[in-house]
Structure formats: structure tokens, C-alpha cells
């Protein structure tokens, strides 16, 4: 309550009340995934902190920056086994990239700054445990500015390695660009590269919408929820240019000749050896690689891409048959495609609904999608939508959509979706 009261007195912090700690952690995770910035979630000691676990593991596995302020029993009661006391340090250790207990008010700004720095740079969860008695002590220390304490993330490898990657691409006759979550926000740069080397862009599920999916060079997603066009192009490719992908089992990328770009050195050649591994920010490396590659106009390959995409589009249209009863998911996705606004934030819960969304929904690059990725936890959908609904960090006022697993209630949900115009919540 000491921390909550301090928040109440502050005009700079927005406090969002939720009914359960798991929701708070999911909302903070969604904020990190959508913005790349840090949100904090708060809990009491013991069961409050254990209730955070699912949402925090979601953030950890999907590399979303999150700050946890976890209450603890008073310092003099740590150890003997007090009411609601658990070994919180050990509990948080496997989840966090930064995990410390605040033992003195003099440590406050130093630990807070380090916690935020680690969450952003290591792209994970930072926890500061705050004992109950310490929460209520006055602290007048100045906030440490981030200027001069954060490195510039606009980095890339030396030109010789970029040249090697470009030469590998120049030699390929059927290159395919694989865009993962690490390429989000780089749609225009991806298209310039794709157009210069006459290559299709295939996305992972989490990168869905990195470019408009109706674009001629977008072949859709790869994997279990993927398109037939993407599967065929990847199968016949002689080179994969993989950008920001974690090589999830569900993406099902095969072993091929490969050029890879990733900001995390542990992801380079994570599953297969690569011809050239470019370590750095994709926003910097994609334009540099585009400048180095030779332009090519492979008309036959472009025609093949077009035919495969047309065949897949026709298949989706055939599946979206409005006359079938009960209503089929492909038809629901078709109507959602027509109704959902261009700047919508779409939050997915886990279930068969994800399969239909990934396969049948055609995203625009102005839309955003958030989900529980590697953890694939049920219960993420509504908190994921609550975050952008409360956030001011958006240029456009988004429509908020939650797509949940509604196997037994599809007709009712479908009628609701058609009735609601500005904000769709199911």
C-alpha cells in the first residue's frame, strides 16, 4: 500500500486497477509487445506474486520489456516464515533478466534505473522486491535521467559481412524473405529489398501484417496456420533471407541455404547453419543489405508468385461460404476483414480461433496484432485488448477487438460483432 499511495500522489504515473494479478502481468506484457516500452505491474507478497507468474512468463518468452514491483513482508520478517512470505527472490529468478530486493531507500533510484535498462536491453522482465516497511519510508532522491545511460541500438555489422550476404543473395534464383517479429515496423524497407531482388515475403504468425497481406509480394504466413503459397515458395526456394525470426516449431522453417539478420546474437544460426549471419538492428541492416544487392527482374518467378497467391486467395473465398450452417470460421474472418478498421488493435486468445485468424484473416500493416506467442496461454485476449484501450501511446484511436475461442457460441458472437461499429469486444 505504500507504493500504491505514492502512485496516488504522483501526477506522472497512470494507475490502472485490475481484479487479478495475472491480468496486470498480461496487460504489461501486451504493452511491451505493442510499443517496445516498459509498463509496470504491482503485487502484494506471496500469492500476489505467484499470481503474476503466467503473464510474466508470457512476457519473458516473447521478449517483452516489463517491470515488476513486488511487495514483500517487512525486512525483519524475511526468513522465519511469516504470513504470505515465500522465497520471492528464488521465485522470480528463472523468469527475470533483472531481479533484486530493495533493502534501503538509498538504493531506490539506482535499482529502478537498472531494472528499466535491463528490461529494455535484454527485452525481458525486471523485478524489484519492495519490503512492506520500506515502502512507507520517505524517499526524496532525484530520478536518474536515461540520457547517457542507454546505448544506441542503431547498430549493425561491418560492411564486409553485409557484402558477403549480398553476394549470397545475388547468386540465388529463388530467394524468399522470411519476416519474423523482429522485422515488425520495417515493412517499407522489406518491400524495397523484395522488389529489388524479385523475392516474395513470407511471415511468421507473430509478424503477420508486417506488410499489407494483399500486396502482390506477400505470400502469407508459413507453418501450421500458413498459406499454400508460402509453403510452396519456401519448399522450392534456394535461399531464405530470415529477418528477426525465433525459428518456432510452429513456423516450421526447413533447413535451407540461409542469410539471417537478428539483434540477438544467440538467435543467429540457432537451429541451422547460415551462409551469413548479420548481427544488429533490422532497421539499420535491411537498407544496407538492399543497397549492396544487385537488382534482378526474374519475371518467371514473379509470375509464379502471382499465380500461387491468386490460387490461395480463391481458396479462401471458396471457404467463406455464407450459405453454410452453422456459420463457418472462414466466413467470420471474411466479414471481420471487411468490418475491422485500418488502425485496429487485434488481441488474440489461444485456441482454434488463432488458427483461423492466422490462416484466413488478411491484415493491413496499419493494424496491430498481439497474442501470447511462445507460452500460448489462455486468458491473454481480454487483457491484451485492455492495454491499448487504456493507453494514450497511439496516433490513432484504435478499434479494440478480442478474438476468442468461441466454439459453442459462434452464432451469438457473430451477431454481436456485426452490431457493434466503433469498438468490437467479444
List the helices and strands and how they pair.
Elements: H1 2-9, H2 21-35, E1 39-43, H3 47-61, E2 66-72, H4 88-92, E3 96-101, H5 108-121, E4 125-131, H6 132-135, H7 159-171, E5 175-179, H8 187-197, E6 201-203, E7 218-221, H9 228-236, E8 239-243, E9 258-262, E10 276-279, H10 282-292, H11 299-319, H12 329-339, E11 345-348, H13 352-360, E12 368-370, H14 381-390, E13 400-403, H15 410-419
Parallel strand pairs: 1-2, 2-4, 3-4, 5-6, 5-8, 6-7, 8-9, 9-10, 11-12, 11-13
Helix pairs in contact: 2-3, 2-14, 7-10, 8-10, 9-11, 12-13, 12-15
Could you describe the 3D structure shown?
Helix 8 (187-197) links the parallel strand 5 and strand 6. Mean pLDDT is 89; it is low at 408-416 and 418-426. The protein has helices at 2-9, 21-35, 47-61, 88-92, 108-121, 132-135, 159-171, 187-197, 228-236, 282-292, 299-319, 329-339, 352-360, 381-390, 410-419; strands at 39-43, 66-72, 96-101, 125-131, 175-179, 201-203, 218-221, 239-243, 258-262, 276-279, 345-348, 368-370, 400-403. Helix 2 (21-35) packs parallel to helix 3, helix 7 packs across helix 10 and helix 12 runs parallel beside helix 15 (410-419). It has 3 domains: 2-135, Rossmann fold (3-Layer(aba) Sandwich); 159-311, Rossmann fold, CATH 3.40.50; 320-419, Thiamin diphosphate (ThDP)-binding fold, Pyr/PP domains (Rossmann fold), CATH 3.40.50. The longest helix has 21 residues, at 299-319. It has a 6-stranded parallel sheet with strand order 7-6-5-8-9-10, with helices on both faces. A 4-stranded parallel sheet has the order 1-2-4-3, sandwiched between helices. Strands 12-11-13 form a 3-stranded parallel sheet, sandwiched between helices. The chain starts with a helix and ends in a 7-residue tail after the last helix. By secondary structure, it is an alpha/beta fold. The protein is globular and about 75 Å long.
